[in-house]
Amino acid sequence: xxxxxxxxxxxxxxxxxxxxxVCAWGFGFYGHAVFLAELQRQHGWSSGLISGATTxxxxxxxxxxxxxxDAVNRLGPRRFVLLGLLALGLSSSIVPFVTAPWQxxxxxxxxxxxxxxxxxxxxxxxxxxxxxxxxGLAISSALNGASTGSxxxxxxxxxxxxxxxxxxxxxxxxxGMALVLVxxxxxxxxxxxxxxxxxxxxxxxxxxxxxxxxxxxxxxxxLAFWSVALPFALGIAAQVxxxxxxxxxxxxxxxxxxxxxxxxxTGVFAIGARVLLSFFIDRLxxxxxxxxxxxxxxxxxxxxxxxxxxLALYIACSAFGITVGNLITFPSLxxxxxxxxxxxxxxxxxxTAVMGLTYALAPGxxxxxxxxTGGYAVPLFVCIATELLAAAIVLARVKAR
Length: 401
Prior knowledge:
79% helix, globular
């Protein structure tokens, strides 16, 4: 059946990938803000120490996502996602019970496997098997789950922590998400039928696969690759650094409950903006649109540094949220437009790995700067400068040869 039909089985895969993104970003991305605040409260550990564990997590995840395509090919999409969900859920459930820093670092290493198996690289690779003409809409729709994770998972963990305590909150949230997602994965995520529409059939016999025109070493030597990977690595690093520390930044002005509402608003506006943009995202000048998003983030962060008024902070977080979802959608779409179709999964996953290795440093660096300066003003200005630099770089397109 043609992928443009809503009865096409690939759209059910999109739904399952949507909920995979809810879990991946809910626990493995936005959840770190909750983990940081609660671990500080329980153990009195410094922001730098906890953020360092987050940095190790992102570094490990950045390395792992470069091999997502190989793992999907070996294990199959369904088994790969299920193993990722197991690692993510188990590690998240253990976080409230760590009593020493080394335990936190070990748990976050396990979580890195879960992140690689459920987040951007996995979703883009699996949907690349099912979609070609509608790939932009499919990826954008599935990645709405990333922002939905901040609306469902983060507030759920905060509310349950206030009610039952941190030790109950995380495992119960994990259980609830597992009851929703695991049946979807079992029923819907699989290889597409032979002769499906996706451009990247990594499971096909070697003799029938299109010849890959790019390799990892070739991509890493290419200015065309870096004209995509570098600006998104810088921009998403600033984004990740802010989001990991968002609760801690906002709590002095808003309190813990209202700060979690601001986080949820960030997610709500991320979803709304991504849904709106998904209907015409393939017709945009995607590099120019990315630059506009990056400048918008810089302006929103600057506003947060200049006010403690609750309404102004809500507005700034909402403005920041407009860019969050779309910024992680554009790399794969630019790669689809500028690189050979046969190399889409390889180049996209390698770019995701570069982004992961770069933004892995952001939470730790911001935590160290916060501890050194006694506040979040300097870390936020560093994020602003990084966003503006990324906006300038992304406008320079180098043709892939």
